[in-house]
From TrEMBL:
Species this protein is from: Anas zonorhyncha (Eastern spot-billed duck)
InterPro entries listed in its UniProt record: Anticodon_Met, Met-tRNA_synth, Met-tRNA_synth_2, Methionyl/Leucyl_tRNA_Synth, MetRS_core, Rossmann-like_a/b/a_fold, tRNAsynth_Ia_anticodon-bd
Lineage, top ranks: Eukaryota, Metazoa, Chordata, Craniata, Vertebrata
Residue ranges constituting the Methionyl/Leucyl tRNA synthetase domain according to the UniProt record: 35-396
Entry keyword Protein biosynthesis: yes
Keyword list, A-Z: Aminoacyl-tRNA synthetase, ATP-binding, Ligase, Mitochondrion, Nucleotide-binding, Protein biosynthesis, Transit peptide
Entry-linked NCBIfam families: metG (TIGR00398)
Pfam families on file: tRNA-synt_1g
Similarity comment text for this entry: Belongs to the class-I aminoacyl-tRNA synthetase family.
CDD domains attached to this UniProt entry: Anticodon_Ia_Met (cd07957), MetRS_core (cd00814)
Catalytic activity: tRNA(Met) + L-methionine + ATP = L-methionyl-tRNA(Met) + AMP + diphosphate
Record EC number: 6.1.1.10
GO biological process annotation, one example: methionyl-tRNA aminoacylation
Subcellular location: Mitochondrion matrix
Protein name: Methionine--tRNA ligase, mitochondrial
Length: 581
């Protein structure tokens, strides 16, 4: 990671040429194109829970956008494969950096595919297309006077690939009584380093960065992270080292025209967002219509260094940086030394793909760290997917109350439209509570869309779960299994109860597609909702209540697909241990 360092400049500094601080670009006329991205994941170890959470957030936003017909979209992810840490890890494993990266990158691709992450581009920084983009980007920085040769000295942390100021260090004592310095954030040991490298004139971009953020208050979102970046920009921004001596770091992209230097791993990695959209030739078709989903630990690199580098190269910053917090395990930070790093593949094996997706997105709150423990997973999934949603589908499609296996007709006489149910006496069979519940479900699609827009997927799922509970209450309250289908008046009310319930399920299934795609497909198929009827842009609810035709009335339901989501048993100790990496 790039961090500020203490530096003393050697030699004259060339003037910095005019830079771009505007958020406009040639892509502004492209309408609704959008690139969604995760960070590219460091290829020094297998994927864990945190990696998957970043990917699921981006995946769900990408799916939601596609279902809403919002225009062309791309979704990129991949692996960051350069740096001293990988060079050393490969040596320790008795293999070469390319072999190590190929193996670990394949693990990430496999894990994301297993979790139904619908990426359109998987970028590896070892690919020729990326290396070409990095060299061109470096050239743009150099041509515009943003780089100069400087000597510096500072504390370098190899595991974190970054230099750290004194304010971010702590002292530790080993078993022999030796005192040494570590990163206060990660606990990794640091070493004093002196080098002559290329420096990036970050100090020149404090005002342009502040203006960019003032002009775009949602550029970094949610707001607490926006405020954090503004706070950082209130302090001085020291210039940054953007290369390392090649004698120390061979596994990386050489600085163009200087074989003694290697481009710093974080500069190399950040350019991946341009590589995937065809930089330097065709990126204008997409850039800057990009939303980066990142963890809070790399906020400074994405919200300070990356926009500054882009401005320096004559490019606008990305449209938005969406930031999320971390997952802890039983209140503790995930750590290999604690043996509590969660293996997403094992979790998917026990809880299913959709089950684990739902749990992470339902419980994850971007603004604060969230805690993982197996008992919570089982409780949430059993309560909300198996019992509430699955039970509702099973009961409302049972042949005992719907022997024709059809989408029954709605009776306006049983459930007449009332402008104000709170002041009007019920004319049909529906109660004031029923009208209140129907209003809740009718407002759900816009509510869910608004929460997605605000990067609050967990709140969208909370609203859906509440409406599922209300629908169960409606169904239970009127006990359709007690009604006599052979009695004309009772049959009308029975069919109306089932119709309203199936309409609710259709809305829930449609809205849940970005989160639990397989389960939502199973639900919608049971209701005989065709693929072309599953979009979000034209989603309607209970049209017959508003005097409009319902295309599903009288339609034969789909085949019985069995239990929607099987109840889970409490994890055994062995199962819990098997989830640890």
């Amino acid at each position: 990671m790039l961090r500020p360092l203490r530096c003393c400049l050697s030699g004259p500094q060339p003037p910095l040429r005019r830079h771009c601080s505007s958020s406009s670009s040639s892509a502004s006329g492209l309408g609704r194109r959008l690139l969604l991205s995760t960070p590219i994941f460091y290829a020094n170890g297998p994927p864990h829970l945190g990696h998957l959470y970043s990917a699921l957030l981006a995946d769900t936003l990408h799916r939601q956008r596609g279902l809403g017909g919002a225009g062309p979209g791309r979704f990129s992810t991949g692996t960051d494969e350069h740096g001293l840490k990988i060079q050393q890890a490969a040596a320790a494993a008795g293999t070469s950096p390319p072999e190590l990266c190929a193996r670990v990158s394949a693990l990430f691709r496999q894990a994301l595919t297993q979790a139904a992450v619908s990426f359109t581009d998987f970028i590896r920084t070892s690919e020729p297309r990326h290396q070409r983009a990095v060299r061109h980007f470096w050239g743009a920085l150099q041509e515009r006077g943003a780089l100069y040769k400087g000597s510096y000295e500072g504390w370098y942390c190899t595991p974190d690939e970054c230099f750290l100021p004194e304010s971010q260090l702590a002292e530790r004592t080993d078993s022999q009584g030796r005192t040494y310095k570590v990163s206060s954030e990660t606990g990794h040991e640091v070493h004093w380093t002196k080098e002559e490298n290329y420096m990036f004139r970050l100090s020149a971009f404090r005002d342009p960065l502040q203006k960019w953020l003032r002009d775009n208050p949602r550029a970094v979102f949610p707001d607490p992270f926006y405020q954090r970046v503004l706070h950082w920009l209130g302090d001085d921004l020291p210039d940054l080292s953007v290369s390392r001596e090649r004698s120390r770091l061979q596994w990386g992209i050489p600085v163009p025209g200087d074989s003694t230097q290697t481009i710093y791993v974080w500069v190399d990695a950040l350019v991946n967002y341009l590589s995937v959209v065809g930089y330097p030739e065709t990126h204008g078709e997409w850039w800057p219509a990009a939303h980066h989903v990142v963890g809070k630990d790399i906020l400074k690199f994405h919200a300070v260094y990356w926009p500054a580098l882009l401005m320096a190269a004559g490019l606008p910053p990305p449209e938005q940086i969406l930031v999320h917090s971390h997952w802890t395990v039983h209140g503790q930070k995930m750590s290999k030394s604690l043996g509590n790093v969660i293996d997403p593949s094992a979790c998917i094996g026990q809880y299913t793909v959709d089950g684990f997706r739902y749990f992470l997105l339902r419980q994850g709150v971007p603004e604060r760290d969230c805690d993982y423990y197996d008992e919570k997973v089982v409780k949430v999934l059993n309560s909300e997917l198996a019992d509430a949603l699955g039970g509702l589908l099973n009961r409302s499609t049972a042949l005992s109350i719907n022997p024709s296996n059809t989408y029954p007709y709605f009776s306006e006489s049983c459930f007449p439209k009332i402008l104000d149910y709170r002041e009007t006496k019920a004319l049909g069979r529906a109660s004031a509570e029923d009208y209140e519940f129907v209003v809740s479900v009718a407002s759900l699609p816009l509510q869910v869309a608004s929460y997605f827009e605000d990067f609050q997927i967990y709140k969208a799922l909370e609203c859906i779960a509440l409406c599922v509970r209300q629908t169960n209450g409606f169904f239970q309250r009127h006990r359709p299994w007690k009604l006599n289908r052979n009695h004309p008046a009772e049959k009308l009310w029975l069919d109306t109860i089932i119709h309203v319930t199936l309409e609710c399920l259709r809305v829930f299934g449609t809205l849940l597609q970005p989160v639990i795609p397989c389960t939502a497909d199973k639900l919608l198929s049971r209701l005989a909702v065709e693929p072309e009827e599953r979009g979000l842009s034209n989603l309607t609810f209970l049209p017959r209540y508003n005097g409009k035709p319902c295309p599903f009335e009288g339609r034969q339901l789909g085949p019985d697909t069995g239990v929607l989501f099987h109840r889970l048993e409490k994890s055994s100790q062995r199962q819990i241990e098997n989830k640890r990496l």
